[in-house]
Write a structure and sequence with these properties.
This protein is α/β, with parallel strands linked by helices. The protein has 10 helices and 12 strands. Strand 8 and strand 9 form a beta hairpin. The longest helix is centred in the middle third of the chain and has 24 residues.
């Protein structure tokens, strides 16, 4: 804010998105929310759903909680008026929709996009954040352990999701994603997990491959694993697995201070050397968002 000569910061979130809001105010974004931060003044939150405000009042100790009223943006602008912000430059973090952006721009005259600066700040995690991410990772691991112990032929993908959520919800975990790919190893038709579960039953000879994310508040882990059902992997799937492990180890070996993003790409090129390719990023930043570097294969 100081670098951009800003006196007011405007945070926007909606539908579970807007990671700057919990990072700076502790409020996990549910419905539409605006947070206004002015150095030297009390932080103010404006939450659109009135029935969400009682929980926010319990949770937030260092800020004022308000209902967003008939229009969250207009209610927030009224607070900015009280703070003398009319005609002043205002910094924004979050995916502010077109309508609210136009209203805020008309009020202030100049809206400054601080999303790149925010992203840069979130690239380096504090020790406290890392502790919380370890909890999210442990909860995600519980889901994988449960699948290994409880998955059996005849269960549908819906039931696999049920196994996953029952593993971490009792410990305070929240579901991020549970994507499954379920296909025959002898006659495969999938090469990436699906984003929605189906009623297809698991059968002997299947491969079940996953992308699982469980969260501790807004700090999550993410685990990708494959399970062969009713027997050992076929030679093709064993080779795929061995290549994935080798690529993971090679990337971890060079993911250290002093190396550059291109070094990670070079390390991952053994995937192509082994005759395979990928249908996703090779690697990306994580934790509070989908952060750079976002690297594809060369």
């Amino acid at each position: 804010m100081a670098e951009n000569e800003l006196f007011h910061l405007f945070l926007y979130g909606a539908g579970g998105r807007g990671s700057a809001v919990p990072w700076l105010t502790e409020w996990p974004v549910t419905t539409e929310v605006v947070a206004i931060l002015t150095p030297g003044e009390t932080d103010s939150l404006f939450i659109q759903y009135f029935n969400h405000t009682p929980f926010a009042e319990r949770l937030i100790s260092n800020g004022e909680v308000n209902w967003g009223g008939a229009s969250t943006i207009q209610t927030a602008i009224e607070e900015l008026k009280k703070r003398g912000a009319a005609g002043q430059r205002i910094g924004v973090i979050g995916g502010l929709p077109f309508g609210p952006y136009e209203a805020l721009k008309e009020f202030s005259g100049k809206v400054i996009n601080l999303n790149p600066a925010y992203t840069k700040l979130r690239l380096v995690k504090s020790d406290e954040e890392l502790d919380w991410f370890r909890i999210g990772a442990a909860l995600s691991d519980l889901a994988i352990d449960a699948l290994l112990a409880e998955m059996k032929p005849g269960q549908t993908e819906h039931e696999l999701a049920d196994i996953v959520e029952h593993a971490y919800v009792p410990h305070g975990g929240k579901s991020g994603i549970h994507f499954f790919g379920v296909t025959s190893m002898a006659d495969p038709h999938l090469y990436v997990p699906a984003q929605m579960t189906s009623n297809r039953p698991v059968a002997d000879g299947d491969i079940v491959f996953t992308e699982i994310t469980a969260s501790f508040w807004d700090h999550s882990g993410q685990v990708l694993r494959s399970f062969s059902v009713g027997g050992e992997p076929t030679p093709l799937y064993q080779e795929l697995h061995d290549t994935a492990v080798a690529a993971f180890d090679a990337i971890c070996e060079v993911a250290k201070p002093g190396n550059r993003p291109e070094d990670l790409i070079v390390a991952g090129q053994l995937i192509e050397r082994n005759g395979f390719t990928i249908c996703d990023d090779l690697i990306h930043g994580y934790g509070g968002g989908y952060f750079p570097p976002v690297l594809a294969r060369a």
